[in-house]
Amino acid sequence: MHLFLREAHAKRADFFIGQIFAQSVPDNECLQLVASNDSDDVLKEMVIYPPVFCAMHDGERLKMKISNEGEKVMRKTYFYLFYKKKRICRIHLPNMKKGEACEFGVNIRDRFFHKDRRELVFKLKKGKRFRTYKLADC
Protein backbone atom coordinates (compact mmCIF):
# COMPACT_ATOMS: atom_id res chain seq x y z
CA MET A 1 0.00 0.00 0.00
CA HIS A 2 1.35 3.40 -0.96
CA LEU A 3 0.39 6.67 0.59
CA PHE A 4 1.09 9.39 -1.94
CA LEU A 5 0.80 13.07 -1.09
CA ARG A 6 1.50 16.09 -3.22
CA GLU A 7 2.13 19.45 -1.60
CA ALA A 8 0.22 22.34 -3.17
CA HIS A 9 3.25 24.65 -3.25
CA ALA A 10 5.71 22.10 -4.62
CA LYS A 11 5.06 21.81 -8.34
CA ARG A 12 8.22 19.85 -9.02
CA ALA A 13 8.35 17.48 -6.05
CA ASP A 14 6.33 14.61 -4.67
CA PHE A 15 6.31 13.30 -1.11
CA PHE A 16 5.43 9.71 -0.35
CA ILE A 17 5.68 7.08 2.33
CA GLY A 18 5.95 3.45 1.41
CA GLN A 19 8.21 1.15 -0.52
CA ILE A 20 10.71 2.95 -2.73
CA PHE A 21 11.52 1.34 -6.07
CA ALA A 22 14.38 2.87 -8.05
CA GLN A 23 17.97 2.25 -8.96
CA SER A 24 20.14 3.37 -6.07
CA VAL A 25 23.11 5.58 -6.90
CA PRO A 26 26.11 5.13 -4.57
CA ASP A 27 27.31 8.20 -2.75
CA ASN A 28 29.94 9.06 -0.15
CA GLU A 29 28.42 12.25 1.17
CA CYS A 30 27.38 13.33 4.63
CA LEU A 31 25.55 16.32 6.07
CA GLN A 32 27.31 19.38 7.43
CA LEU A 33 25.69 21.98 9.69
CA VAL A 34 25.75 25.40 7.97
CA ALA A 35 23.35 27.51 10.07
CA SER A 36 21.62 27.18 13.42
CA ASN A 37 19.24 29.09 15.64
CA ASP A 38 19.03 26.39 18.30
CA SER A 39 20.80 27.83 21.35
CA ASP A 40 19.45 25.21 23.77
CA ASP A 41 20.24 22.34 21.32
CA VAL A 42 16.69 20.98 21.20
CA LEU A 43 17.04 19.98 17.53
CA LYS A 44 20.55 18.61 17.97
CA GLU A 45 18.98 15.35 19.12
CA MET A 46 17.24 14.95 15.75
CA VAL A 47 19.59 13.13 13.38
CA ILE A 48 19.25 13.49 9.61
CA TYR A 49 20.93 10.61 7.83
CA PRO A 50 22.56 11.28 4.45
CA PRO A 51 19.99 10.82 1.68
CA VAL A 52 20.03 7.88 -0.69
CA PHE A 53 19.85 9.14 -4.28
CA CYS A 54 17.87 7.10 -6.78
CA ALA A 55 17.76 7.78 -10.51
CA MET A 56 14.40 8.30 -12.18
CA HIS A 57 13.59 8.90 -15.82
CA ASP A 58 12.39 12.47 -15.14
CA GLY A 59 14.49 13.55 -12.17
CA GLU A 60 15.89 12.22 -8.93
CA ARG A 61 14.41 10.51 -5.87
CA LEU A 62 15.81 11.11 -2.40
CA LYS A 63 15.16 8.58 0.33
CA MET A 64 15.44 10.34 3.70
CA LYS A 65 15.65 9.06 7.26
CA ILE A 66 15.35 11.21 10.39
CA SER A 67 15.54 9.83 13.92
CA ASN A 68 15.19 11.10 17.47
CA GLU A 69 18.29 10.28 19.52
CA GLY A 70 17.26 12.46 22.49
CA GLU A 71 15.42 11.68 25.69
CA LYS A 72 12.33 13.80 24.99
CA VAL A 73 9.45 13.17 22.61
CA MET A 74 9.84 15.51 19.61
CA ARG A 75 6.58 17.14 18.61
CA LYS A 76 5.64 19.73 16.00
CA THR A 77 8.88 19.39 14.08
CA TYR A 78 9.13 20.19 10.37
CA PHE A 79 11.57 19.10 7.69
CA TYR A 80 12.24 21.34 4.69
CA LEU A 81 14.13 20.54 1.51
CA PHE A 82 15.42 23.35 -0.69
CA TYR A 83 16.93 22.98 -4.16
CA LYS A 84 18.57 25.98 -5.83
CA LYS A 85 17.06 28.22 -3.12
CA LYS A 86 13.51 27.06 -3.87
CA ARG A 87 11.52 25.07 -1.35
CA ILE A 88 10.86 21.61 -2.74
CA CYS A 89 8.91 20.25 0.22
CA ARG A 90 7.75 20.90 3.76
CA ILE A 91 6.97 17.82 5.82
CA HIS A 92 5.39 17.76 9.27
CA LEU A 93 7.26 14.97 11.01
CA PRO A 94 5.30 12.62 13.26
CA ASN A 95 5.79 12.76 17.04
CA MET A 96 8.90 10.69 17.70
CA LYS A 97 9.93 9.06 20.98
CA LYS A 98 13.52 8.23 21.81
CA GLY A 99 15.00 5.91 19.21
CA GLU A 100 12.13 6.26 16.75
CA ALA A 101 12.78 7.14 13.12
CA CYS A 102 10.80 8.41 10.17
CA GLU A 103 11.65 7.37 6.60
CA PHE A 104 10.21 9.05 3.54
CA GLY A 105 11.07 9.86 -0.04
CA VAL A 106 10.99 13.03 -2.10
CA ASN A 107 10.93 13.18 -5.90
CA ILE A 108 12.70 16.10 -7.55
CA ARG A 109 11.13 16.44 -10.97
CA ASP A 110 13.76 18.65 -12.54
CA ARG A 111 17.06 18.25 -14.34
CA PHE A 112 19.37 16.96 -11.65
CA PHE A 113 23.06 16.20 -12.05
CA HIS A 114 25.63 14.93 -9.55
CA LYS A 115 27.10 18.42 -9.14
CA ASP A 116 23.62 19.75 -8.26
CA ARG A 117 23.68 17.81 -5.00
CA ARG A 118 25.62 20.73 -3.51
CA GLU A 119 22.53 22.89 -4.12
CA LEU A 120 20.40 20.80 -1.75
CA VAL A 121 19.67 22.32 1.67
CA PHE A 122 18.05 20.32 4.48
CA LYS A 123 16.37 22.15 7.34
CA LEU A 124 14.81 21.01 10.60
CA LYS A 125 12.51 23.51 12.29
CA LYS A 126 10.60 23.55 15.57
CA GLY A 127 8.93 26.85 16.40
CA LYS A 128 11.59 29.53 15.93
CA ARG A 129 14.44 27.05 16.32
CA PHE A 130 16.11 25.65 13.22
CA ARG A 131 19.18 23.76 12.04
CA THR A 132 20.26 23.89 8.38
CA TYR A 133 22.48 21.30 6.70
CA LYS A 134 24.16 20.86 3.31
CA LEU A 135 25.84 17.88 1.70
CA ALA A 136 29.61 17.66 2.09
CA ASP A 137 32.17 15.09 0.96
CA CYS A 138 33.15 12.63 3.68
Helix content: under 10%
User: What's the overall geometry?
Assistant: globular
How can the largest sheet be summarized?
Answer: 7 strands, antiparallel
Strand elements, count: 12
Strand content: over 45%
Helices and strands, in N-to-C order?
EEEEEEEEEEEE
Rg computed from alpha carbons, rounded to a whole number of angstroms: 14 Å
Contiguous helical run count: 0
Distance between the termini: 36 Å
Mean pLDDT: 80
- Ranges where pLDDT stays below 50 over 5 or more residues in a row are 1-12, 15-28
Secondary-structure-derived class: mainly beta
Task: Lay out the secondary structure.
Layout: E1 3-5, E2 13-17, E3 23-25, E4 29-36, E5 46-48, E6 52-56, E7 59-68, E8 78-83, E9 86-92, E10 101-108, E11 120-126, E12 129-137
Antiparallel strand pairs: 1-2, 2-10, 3-6, 4-12, 5-7, 6-7, 7-10, 8-9, 8-11, 11-12
Q: Would you kindly provide a written description of the structure presented here, covering whatever features stand out?
A:
This protein has 138 residues and is an all-beta fold. The chain is 0% helix and 54% strand. The termini are far apart. It has no helices and 12 strands. Strands 1, 2, 3, 5, 6, 7 and 10 form a 7-stranded antiparallel sheet that branches. The protein is globular, with a radius of gyration of 14 Å.
Quick overview:
The protein has 138 residues and is mainly β.
Task: Supply database-style keywords.
138 residues, 7-stranded antiparallel beta sheet, single chain, globular
